[in-house]
Amino acid sequence: MSQRDDDPAREAARLRRELEEANYHYYVEDAPTIPDADYDRMLRRLQEIEAAHPELVTPDSPTRRVGAQPAEGFAEVRHAVAMLSLDNAFDHDEVRAFARRVAERLERDPEAIDFCCEPKLDGLAVSLIYEQGVLVQGATRGDGRTGEGITANVRTLKSIPLRLRGEQPPELLEVRGEVYISHSGFERLNERARESGGKVFANPRNAAAGSVRQLDPGIAASRPLEFCAYQVARIDDERWQATHSAQMDGLRHFGFRTSPAMEVVTGAEGLIDFCQRLGEKRESLDYDIDGAVMKVDDYRSQRELGFVSRAPRWAMAFKFPAQEQTTTINDVRFQVGRTGRLTPVAELEPVQVAGVTVANASLHNMDEIARLDARIGDTVIVRRAGDVIPQIVQVIIEQRPTRTRAIDMPAECPVCGSRVERAEGEVDAICSGGLFCAAQRKEALKHFASRRALDIDGLGDKLIDQLVELEWVKTPADLFRLEVTRLSELPRVAEKSATNLVNALERARQTTLARFIFALGIPEVGEATAGALATHFGTLERLMAADEAALTAVPDIGPVVAAHLHAFFAEQHNREIIDDLRRMGVTWEEVEVAERPRPLTGETWVLTGTLEAMTRDEAKSRLAALGAKVSGSVSKKTHAVVAGPGAGSKLERARELALTIFDEEGFLARLEQLEQGGMPGETHDE
Predict the structure, then answer these.
(1) In three state form, how does the secondary structure of 52-112 look?
(2) 632 has a pLDDT exceeding 90
(3) Which of these, 278, 392, 240, 409, lies nearest to 326 by C-alpha position?
(4) From CA 246, how far away is CA 240, in angstroms rounded?
(5) Assuming Cys at both sites, which of 256, 301, 394, 569 could form a disulfide with 229, CB separation 3.0 to 4.6 Å?
(6) 682 among the known binding-site residues?
(7) C-alpha span between 185 and 94 (Å, rounded)
(8) Quick check: helix, strand or coil at residue 576?
(9) Which residue in 120, 446, 620, 650 is the catalytic one?
């Protein structure tokens, strides 16, 4: 937001430029560059300057007009009745002042005037015209005088009747309302976009506006758009012309959705009570609202009150604290969670959002940073809704400084210094120091002691919390150093309980290899996987020495799990703790394993095209289990190429080199033969 200037003329000129630029991005581009709260403050400041210095008022000032010019691509529609905006109130005193002005102009008791109140939906305002009960035109608000014809798009909204319900519809009806997307619809829309690699929207308002203003009505039809009516602009039926609330009843009669939260209240205190109650349930609604709209209910009174240049005197919007604000990213730090997951957290220039000072916001992961194109030093829009953790929803690229810094994932854990690993195809980066890392300590110990791991009876979560906070236990090996006399010093731990725990620890020293592997808490390694590893390798030493290719030779272990296993055992801190556990007497019987033949040892295979019976990763795992190396390129050293549908240059290269080529059917047959103990023989060429 612009800073105040000692020169009113210069400040007014700057505010006009910034407001017009914001108008363009908001109304024409459907890509807001500043939150509504910033726009409201800038407009109010310009109004203050022009009120104090009338000579500075210009004909093109944003205070004298409503919005911006319509975008190209749609037919222009001239509104018969202008779609004006509303003046805003930001506190209860301003609401009382509005009610007092209305009462003074009407020369009536302020506490005897009825107002119709409803939520102010955060979407896109549109106008609908019906002739003889049939929808004939839909238009956007545009600049308030001229909008864009979007009839084909609004016809796709199921919440908009194509023909009015009921008998004897009016010959002419113009309805105003808001097109919006609910929170649940927005989540579904973005989930589909993520699955298909499409555009992910920053917020429901942007999604609704962008969907309505598509030249292809099929796109609007595919989006979860909804419509809620809030005004009758024109009607030639006297049945519905007494009050605003009666007209809303009429719209429901005709088949329109209106706000279920609409109420008629009396006087200023009734207005304030409505706004307070609406604000309290704001977070429970399935749609975004940014305030309440308050209108004098009686139409005769509305006509008497009239309009100012850009707004009616008989209506006002009460604005809630903004849920979005602009600020800057000063730095980014990486937090390590209890499971070792690293989360980037933006350190922000502190800003008030929804009544709370926000100085930090989660960036979730490196994929989200890439999607936002966020950099240290950027100006961003941060959002906070209720108790939801603040999040950055948009980077304002237009305001990017010349010098910003990229956000890079650290190579080492910021807590323990262990290597940070991110498996191919995985979103999360993980600290590999699971047994050693202080950030993961409590969770690692609780898992280690759990029933399906070492089953240490009496070692509950609260006791582990105490032991860690007192720094009596830093690694699982330290558990086996606990003594009855020291444990008895803890609050609510009697000598008998301490003795029972030490005895349970003694029993836990004798376990099985599968339980021990599971107890280590390696990411993605559950009981079944731990059992498969124990059966396959037989000893912990063989497991710890295995490379990723050897690990994927284990049934049902793919590249992601293999990467986690390899990273865990490659971390020296984890090896030291395992050695310490064995010194403390933790032991198990080794599993006898028959050496399995690996008939493709030394061979290099290439996969190209699409496989229909299995994924590419599954094919790689099965080849690796047979000893083969899977390469991404074809060369003279390649032994065989598997070519599915869509194979391209790799298949051509294989033909040039006269290599063995399998189609998918032949590949599956060869895998089955080798996995059942057969040796390589003749190949099935394509």
Answers:
(1) HCHHHCCCCCHHHCCCCCCCCCCCEEECCCCCCCCCEECCHHHHHHHHHHHHHHHCCCHHH
(2) no
(3) 392
(4) 6
(5) 256
(6) no
(7) 35
(8) helix
(9) 120
Q: What is the mean pLDDT of residues 217-234?
A: 90
Domains of the chain: 8-64 (1.10.287.610), 88-319 (3.30.470.30), 324-399 (2.40.50.140), 420-588 (1.10.150.20), 604-675 (3.40.50.10190)
* Token digits of residue 246: 């009666």
82 annotated among ligand-binding-site residues? no
Strand partners, 148: 76
Mean pLDDT, rounded, of the chain: 86
Q: What is the pLDDT of residues 113-155, one digit of tens each?
A: 999 999 999 899 999 999 988 899 999 998 888 999 998 888 8
Active site residue 650: no
| Angle value at C-alpha 305, between 303 and 309, nearest 5 degrees | 100
Q: Is 131 annotated as a binding residue?
A: no
* Residue spans of beta strands (DSSP E) within 449-524: 510-511
| Residue 29 among known ligand-binding residues | no
List C-alpha distances in Å: 472 to 456, 469, 480, 581, 645.
Answer: 17, 8, 11, 16, 60
Going along 369-468, which residue ranges are E strands? 379-383, 391-395, 420-421, 429-431
Neighbours of 573 (CB within 10 A): 19
Transcribe 614-650 into DSSP letters.
S-HHHHHHHHHHTTPEEESS--TT--EEEE-TT--HH
Q: Is the pLDDT of residue 397 over 80?
A: yes
Q: Does 85 show up as a binding residue in the annotation?
A: yes
Q: For the sheet containing 114-121, what is the strand order?
A: 88-89, 315-319, 289-296, 114-121, 263-266
Q: What is the mean pLDDT of residues 308-331?
A: 88
556 has binding-site annotation:
no
- State pTM to two decimals: 0.55
